[in-house]
Amino acid sequence: MAKVVPFKAVRYNTSRFGQDVTRFVAPPYDVIDGPAEKALKEDRLNITHVTLGDEGDSYATAAKRLRTWLDDEVLVTDDGEAFYLYEQTFKSPDGAPVVRTGIIGLVRLEDFSKGVVLPHERTIPKHKADRLALMQAVGGQAEQVFMLYDDPSGELERLILELRKRGEELRFVDPEGVHHRIVRVGERAHAERISSLMAPLRLLIADGHHRYETALRYRDMRRAEERPDGEMPYDFIMATLISFRNPGLVIYPTHRLVRGLDGAVLGGLRAKLGEAFDLADREGPEGVADALARARPDAVGAWAPGSGLAVLATPKEEAADPLGRLSVQVLQERVLKGMLGYTQEMLDGKVGIEYVKGTDASLAAMASGEHQACFFVKPPTPAQVMEVASSGEKMPQKSTYFFPKIWSGTLLHLF
C-alpha cells in the first residue's frame, strides 16, 4: 500500500523575490555538465550550490550555505502541510503543445521487495555514495524523484484538472522553452482525497533511482542509530507523481556513441551483426534513424562513418522476455558486450562510451570527430517500462530520458 502525504515544503521566498524563480532553479544534478554548472553557479543563490556542492568538501559548504539561506529567509517554510501541482507546458516531438501535470508530495520509502515502489534501471554505487554524502550533510532532500502511477479510474486526473485552474505559487521558463508552474493545494479535504486515491496504486520510479536507493540507505542508518517509535521525516522521499495515462509523458531515446575501439574490431562489426540480425542498409545516419523509428521495439541502428556502416539491425529471433525485447538491452548485451568487448564496468564508468539524448544531439557530437560510431536505440514506451519493472528486471542505465525533467529548487524537504 503506497502512502503519499502532504508536507511543509521549504521554498524560495517569493514574497521577497517574486514568483519568477528562474535564477534559483536548475535541472536534476545528473544532467548538468561542467559549463552548465559554472553558468548556474554564477548566481550565488542558485540551488546547484546545494545539489552539486563544491568539489572536494563532502558538501560541508553546501550545508552551511543552506543554513544561511534559511537564517536570511532566502528560503522559507510553508505555514502548513500541502500537496502541490507541478505543471509543465512544452512542445511534443511532433511540435504540438502539451501540458503535463503531476502531484508533488511525500512518498513513504518502501523496500523494492514489497512491490509498492518499482525500479526499472540499474544504479551505480559511486553515484549513490555521492548522494548519501549530500543527504547526510544537509539533512534533507533538495530534489524530487519522478514517479509514475496508473489510476484506471481517472479520478486523480479529474481532480488535477480541477485544481490546476488555480493561480501559481511560483513559475519559470527553462532554456528549452518549457513553462513550469507550481500550484499549492492545502485544503485538508483535497489532501485526504489525494492520499486515499494514491493508496492502492503501485509507483514506478521514472527518474531518481540513485536518490531513492540513497534515501532507503539513509533511512536505515538513522533508524538503526535512533530506534524511533513511529514514522519520521526521513521515512519519506519527496516526489512528483504523474499518471501513466498523461498525454504529456514523453520518453526520448538515449543513443550510444563509442570511441577507442580497435579498427579491425569495428571493421568486422557488419559481418558479426549479420550472423544474429537481419540487416538493412540505409543512406547515412538520418536514414538509419528514420528506419529505426518504424522498426520493431528490439531493433537497433549502427552508423560508423569511417567504415561506411549505416544499417538497421533487427534480431533474427525475438526474445520471449520483456527486457530482451527492448532496443537498449539488445544493443548492450548482444552488440556492445557480445561483439565489441565492452564490460559492465566500462559501461558504468563511461569508458569509451557516451550517452546522448536524441538524434540531433548525437549527430552534433559525432561531428566533433571524437567518436568512431553511433548506435541508435528506440526509446521504450511507458507501458514497456512498467512491464519490465513488474517482471522484476532492470533496464541498462540511461535507458529512458523522460522529458521534460523535474527541475530542482522548486521545493525542498528538510528533516
Protein described:
With 415 residues, this protein is an alpha+beta fold. Helices cover 33% and strands 25% of the residues. The chain has helices spanning 14-17, 34-40, 48-51, 60-71, 125-138, 155-163, 188-198, 209-226, 263-267, 269-276, 284-293, 327-337, 344-348, 359-366, 382-390, and strands at residues 4-5, 10-12, 75-77, 83-91, 97-108, 117-118, 140-141, 145-149, 170-173, 179-185, 203-207, 236-243, 250-252, 254-258, 277-281, 300-304, 309-315, 353-357, 373-377, 401-403, 413-414. Strands 1, 4, 5, 6, 8, 9, 10, 11 and 12 form a 9-stranded mixed sheet that branches. Strands 15-17-16-19-14-18 form a 6-stranded antiparallel sheet. The mean pLDDT is 95.
Q: What does this entry show, briefly?
A:
This protein is α+β, with helices and mostly antiparallel strands and 415 residues long.
> Structural class, from helix and strand content?
alpha+beta
Terminus-to-terminus distance: 23 Å
**What kind of sheet is the major sheet?**
9 strands, mixed
Helix content: 25-40%
Stretches where pLDDT is under 50 for at least 5 consecutive residues are: none
Please state the average pLDDT score. 95
Overview features:
alpha+beta, 9-stranded mixed β-sheet, 21 strands
What is this structure's SSE topology?
Layout: E1 4-5, E2 10-12, H1 14-17, H2 34-40, H3 48-51, H4 60-71, E3 75-77, E4 83-91, E5 97-108, E6 117-118, H5 125-138, E7 140-141, E8 145-149, H6 155-163, E9 170-173, E10 179-185, H7 188-198, E11 203-207, H8 209-226, E12 236-243, E13 250-252, E14 254-258, H9 263-267, H10 269-276, E15 277-281, H11 284-293, E16 300-304, E17 309-315, H12 327-337, H13 344-348, E18 353-357, H14 359-366, E19 373-377, H15 382-390, E20 401-403, E21 413-414
Parallel strand pairs: 6-11, 8-12
Antiparallel strand pairs: 1-5, 2-3, 4-5, 4-10, 5-12, 7-21, 8-11, 9-10, 13-20, 14-18, 14-19, 15-17, 16-17, 16-19
